[in-house]
Amino acid sequence: METAVKPRTEVELEVRYAETDQMGVVHHSNYLCWFEVARTRHCEESGHHYADIEEQGHWLVVTGASIRYRQGARYGEKVVVSCALDWVATRAVQFAYEVRCEGRLLATGTTEHVWVDRKTRRHCRIPGYLSDTFLRLAGQDRLQRPKS
Amino acid sequence: METAVKPRTEVELEVRYAETDQMGVVHHSNYLCWFEVARTRHCEESGHHYADIEEQGHWLVVTGASIRYRQGARYGEKVVVSCALDWVATRAVQFAYEVRCEGRLLATGTTEHVWVDRKTRRHCRIPGYLSDTFLRLAGQDRLQRPKS
Amino acid sequence: METAVKPRTEVELEVRYAETDQMGVVHHSNYLCWFEVARTRHCEESGHHYADIEEQGHWLVVTGASIRYRQGARYGEKVVVSCALDWVATRAVQFAYEVRCEGRLLATGTTEHVWVDRKTRRHCRIPGYLSDTFLRLAGQDRLQRPKS
Amino acid sequence: METAVKPRTEVELEVRYAETDQMGVVHHSNYLCWFEVARTRHCEESGHHYADIEEQGHWLVVTGASIRYRQGARYGEKVVVSCALDWVATRAVQFAYEVRCEGRLLATGTTEHVWVDRKTRRHCRIPGYLSDTFLRLAGQDRLQRPKS
Which of A19, A28, A112 to mutate to probe the C interface, most C CBs <10 Å? Predict the structure, then answer.
């Protein structure tokens, strides 16, 4: 069902000292925060900052995450975190991420999300005003069913 | 104006690996989180969990913090964080903290806070239902003016 | 090849205010830190604190993590994080986790790790002095090959 | 003893979702991490990345921190964190920070540090190769005694 190349957004981040642990590399939990920064930028560049999406009344709640770590990132390095929209379904979406440092692949990952209506706090369909954008980001011509 | 000994609450915390940095000790920003855990417990033991205080419509917003670090805390160690209420004024409070490891003093600090009404998002007086408790915690017989 | 019930270690954690995000629940990255606390306790209760394992010259580096989030955890709540050793292979191990709040399952996850020699910074076999313990924790009679 | 204007380095940071708490603003502990990013950049722009300073055998250990919070920072906003070297003494230094958002001052702070020799893990004098740089950053003509 995928009909087009998916746009991919890159963010350059400087490794923060506070992100390291006593192993001398970035603690593995921080990659989820980095993914989030790249996801924020990806939405923003598509025209919808996630802060506005929340303001409009919806949350994109994380329901799953998965990460493969290949090499550590070190304080003093800059990493490039990229994000693409894997797929969008009627009620869920999955983003995919890569973390690189000077070309070397440090980590890959995905996060899965569902839409939640802020007022009712219940799961809901993708907000109508976002579906064209998300379809384009996912390179799909229509909403699919979740793969999982 | 201080008329009584101030009660002090202690919390034992296990140092988390994620809290260390590449220096091999706990990153200094985590002490503010530890202070908060001790402050939460201190309020809870006085009969008012801070989660309930928020639910009742007030925030105790941090307006200042100050920390002296004397020795590092290490993964594998347990620290004891203690909290007391330094003083309570009509619109502000200050808590004081100590962090110890097996008796050794690792750090001391204070945080200053003001009351904010959640609905109006404006500064306000200490909620009436809390003032007796806070006066007792501070060992005061009446609300004082902020020292700073 | 699994020959016995796997021991499971539980840790009770109070949700920290600093762990929440503006959605009003614990930010999803913190679950990896909670898993780590439970993993630390699991190793400790088996007789080998991970701080000692590092001191002896080995790192148990995280190579993968996967989490399913079912319900949010809130400030004011206590969660129970449990950890078991899924399997142990010659050069890798996988731990499994559950996070509960008053019986309700909030999240599940796994982390995969490889052994690294601190001096050479190269992958290595499980340190000899640990293999009996890890086999017992995994309920295995011998080291298996990684499943992934 | 101050003989010149102190150079000041600015870093622009995007507020991360993970940095917010349930009050809807950035949790106060993160300002110490932001200060650190600005301090890193300030050293780097003076010609000495702190990662290299550590590599050369010295730590600049935090011994004190103090912060005044005036307004919250929100997800979706960009903040500018600036750093200057307040003073440099034979064995200690103090940095000062400001956090702004579109001109509005959100917070100010200072951190105090001492030099530690990585090999001996003992306090030491400022490494000789750094003193000219630090004197210039502090706008001093010679090392002073700590003010505290």
Answer: A28
